[in-house]
Task: inverse folding
């Protein structure tokens, strides 16, 4: 076991650091500056182009497809170093890299690979994900948006929800029902869709945080050529699983949250003189959170080691997200308490308290998005511990016969 | 980065697990308790013969000179089966104390005997209710006076490292007339505890100064492995029972209330194991990281074991409250591991006080 970089990894890290120091500062978004979303996407495209030109886009993708042909660990090193800068890297870039072209590389045709992979690596194409529906969240395969074949095209009708940044995306990855006469997982097909296609209407959802970066997407007689189908007709669920695996591993979501809170507690007046960190209950809560956060960090290191050997960590990957989301909810709640009554109505220029409030709200969606806690617990129980699967009343029933 | 056990370490774990599952099944533990045995002496001899006790003792002193991680791999297996051996007292604490603080002569005299299992050692630090690390025992000249209680495995130990006034460590041969050992009633039926009274007992000061915190850090990492192994055993036992038990016409394991309970426990076990790996790596390779990583390993392992021991019994239902079931071994051992080495308070403070940039900002100055 070695937690340090190998000599090769250390050399790569040095090279990446030097390249970032020379190139990243021009793209950094100053902290506390809220960009117009059109401008943010432009900046995101420009940064991704710079990464491509530097030779670091799609590190694990083969060179023949425009990638670097590097290792998983190199990709991790690059993202660790990149995270030192506050760069424009929203879902419009991340969904393209982590999900869309990952699915196309694995399940797509040669023509599709040529058409989509390199332009996405260059930041020329931005992407959104059109999976969830009002009645298909945790039970994703329950989706109702349908596609019917007409000549060489498919005609799509239905509604998708939670499509982050759909309003600023060039393309979407889409899963739809193409055969309602078979059980629900078997009648699905995976497409990529041009978001400028006639019949697509995007409406923003106002979230509890006040932001609107999720959308509802309505599809009315949208025409998708069969050449934009990824994988087999009826094989969409398998493609979807490739994509969701990318989502869970790529989220990097254990990012340090507790340390700043510790610093904050150490500089905040306590109840009995001294600082808030002198309180035993606050120390205990912070220490437990910090110990769990470190455990998640080293668990992620174990999973990366597995991935770098070509092993699939499967449901273990869900443990990191599960642990992060509930920890964030607890620690951001504690942060609001430390802030005192001021946290419910801070002064207009108090950006710190605003970010604490935002974390408290954001933590609620983290326990739902990318697999709700309850779904992840089922997966861990079934796939890691070998416990029985949930009773699925709809397993062998044709979709059209379901209520 | 390669954050996994090596093939050799995986093999070591398998060997230890194979031996222990054969020699230390639950019925054997029950027979030891019924016979009033303080330990499983023949298993201890066997572990010594196979080299398991000397894994982290330097080769020059009769050990195998391997790493803290190798030792942790074994501690995890011992924790898994609740073996009735004084490994925690003799190897994790006593031998490591001598390695850290002993003179070359003391090391040469005792480490080979501890490594072979010929001598059992222990570490005497508590002096009754209250803080774990008391120093009311005084060493004047070469004479030791005062009392330590409780001291684990002191009935079978020949040698004790004793925390004395001033914070130093002294070596005491327990087989002498100035030492009186009184057996206590141990909550953990598989780990005997004693009160020791010293009346002008002959003792040797160990030359190493200020090693207590490091000794405890290193021991905390090993105890975290032990607790992780035990927590995983609780998880497996609960899972197996739930798979076997039929209720309301279906398997108990098919109920989501049970699945979710055990899934949460599985996450706690993996977080604890990951922290223990890093703590062991830091103990050997990155001493600056040891205090915080040992504390994190300690806290997460105690959480996993505490919940594991409790929920295992809960999943078993009424049968879990009987001695016929095996839950009680872990339920008692959990408290023994949790209260030793300073308990949660000590490790909470240590973790917080060893965060970079925080020293000096904490007005209470609780740093250990």
Result:
């Amino acid at each position: 076991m070695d937690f340090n970089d190998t000599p090769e990894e250390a050399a790569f890290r040095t090279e990446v650091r030097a390249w970032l120091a020379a190139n990243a500062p021009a793209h950094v978004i100053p902290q506390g500056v809220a960009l117009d979303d059109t401008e943010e996407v432009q900046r995101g495209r420009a940064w991704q182009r710079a990464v491509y030109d530097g030779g670091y886009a799609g590190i694990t993708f083969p060179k023949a497809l425009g990638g670097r042909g590097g290792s998983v660990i190199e990709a991790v090193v690059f993202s660790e170093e990149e995270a030192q800068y506050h760069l424009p890297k929203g879902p419009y870039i991340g969904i393209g890299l982590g999900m869309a072209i990952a699915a196309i590389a694995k399940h797509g045709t040669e023509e599709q690979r040529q058409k989509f992979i390199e332009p996405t690596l260059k930041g020329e194409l931005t992407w959104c994900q059109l999976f969830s529906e009002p009645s298909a969240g945790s039970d994703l395969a329950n989706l109702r948006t349908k596609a019917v074949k007409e000549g060489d095209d498919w005609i799509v009708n239905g509604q998708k929800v939670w499509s982050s940044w759909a309003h600023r995306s060039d393309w979407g990855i889409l899963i739809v029902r193409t055969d309602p006469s078979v059980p629900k997982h078997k009648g699905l097909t995976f497409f990529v869709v041009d978001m400028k296609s006639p019949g697509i209407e995007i409406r923003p959802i106002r979230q509890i945080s006040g932001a609107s970066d999720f959308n509802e997407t309505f599809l009315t007689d949208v025409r998708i050529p069969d050449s934009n189908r990824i994988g087999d007709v009826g094989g969409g669920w398998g493609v979807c699983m490739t994509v969701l695996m990318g989502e869970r591993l790529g989220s990097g979501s254990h990012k340090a949250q507790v340390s700043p809170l510790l610093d904050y507690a150490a500089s905040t007046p306590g109840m009995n003189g001294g600082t808030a960190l002198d309180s035993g209950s606050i120390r205990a809560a912070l220490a437990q959170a910090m110990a769990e956060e470190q455990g998640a960090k080293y668990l992620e290191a174990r999973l990366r080691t597995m991935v770098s050997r070509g092993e699939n960590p499967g449901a273990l990957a869900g443990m990191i997200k599960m642990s992060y989301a509930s920890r964030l909810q607890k620690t951001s709640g504690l942060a609001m308490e430390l802030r005192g009554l001021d946290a419910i109505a801070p002064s207009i220029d108090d950006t710190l308290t605003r970010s604490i409030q935002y974390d408290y709200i954001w933590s609620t969606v983290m326990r739902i998005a990318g697999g709700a806690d309850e779904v992840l617990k089922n997966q861990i129980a079934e796939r890691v511990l070998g416990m029985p699967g949930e009773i699925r009343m709809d397993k062998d029933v044709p979709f059209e016969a379901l209520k | 980065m390669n954050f996994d056990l090596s093939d050799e370490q995986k093999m070591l774990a398998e060997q230890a697990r194979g031996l222990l599952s054969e020699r230390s099944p639950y019925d054997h533990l029950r027979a030891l308790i019924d016979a009033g045995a303080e330990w499983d002496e023949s298993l201890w001899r066997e572990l010594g013969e196979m080299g398991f006790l000397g894994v982290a003792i330097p080769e020059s002193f009769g050990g195998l000179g391997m790493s803290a991680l190798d030792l942790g791999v074994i501690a995890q297996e011992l924790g898994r089966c609740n073996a009735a051996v004084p490994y925690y007292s003799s190897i994790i604490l006593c031998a490591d104390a001598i390695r850290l603080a002993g003179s070359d002569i003391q090391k040469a005299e005792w480490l080979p005997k501890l490594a072979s299992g010929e001598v059992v050692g222990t570490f005497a630090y508590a002096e009754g209710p209250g803080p774990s690390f008391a120093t009311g025992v005084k060493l004047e000249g070469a004479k030791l006076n005062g009392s330590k209680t409780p001291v684990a495995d002191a009935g079978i130990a020949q040698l004790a490292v004793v925390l004395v006034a001033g914070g130093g460590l002294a070596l005491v041969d327990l087989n002498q007339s100035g030492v009186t050992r009184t057996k206590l009633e141990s909550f953990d039926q598989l780990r005997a505890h004693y009160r020791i009274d010293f009346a002008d007992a002959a003792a040797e000061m160990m030359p190493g100064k200020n090693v207590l915190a490091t000794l405890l850090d290193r021991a905390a990492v090993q105890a975290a492995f032990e607790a992780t192994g035990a927590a995983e055993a609780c998880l497996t036992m609960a899972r197996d029972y739930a798979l076997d038990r039929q209720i309301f016409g279906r398997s108990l394991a098919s109920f989501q209330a049970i699945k979710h309970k055990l899934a949460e426990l599985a996450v706690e076990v993996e977080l604890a194991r990951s922290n223990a790996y890093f703590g062991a790596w830091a103990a050997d390779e990155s001493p600056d990281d040891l205090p915080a990583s040992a504390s994190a390993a300690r806290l997460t392992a105690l959480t996993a074991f505490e919940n594991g021991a409790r929920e295992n019994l809960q999943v078993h239902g009424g049968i879990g409250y009987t001695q016929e079931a095996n839950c009680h071994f872990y339920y008692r051992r959990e408290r023994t591991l949790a209260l030793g080495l300073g308990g949660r308070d000590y490790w909470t403070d240590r973790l917080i006080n060893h965060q970079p940039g925080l020293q000096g900002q904490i007005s209470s100055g609780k740093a250990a």
Q: What stands out?
A: Confidence is low (pLDDT under 50) at residues 360-368 of chain B. Strands of chain B lie at 121-124, 138-140, 143-152, 159-163, 169-173, 179-183, 193-205, 246-247, 250-251.
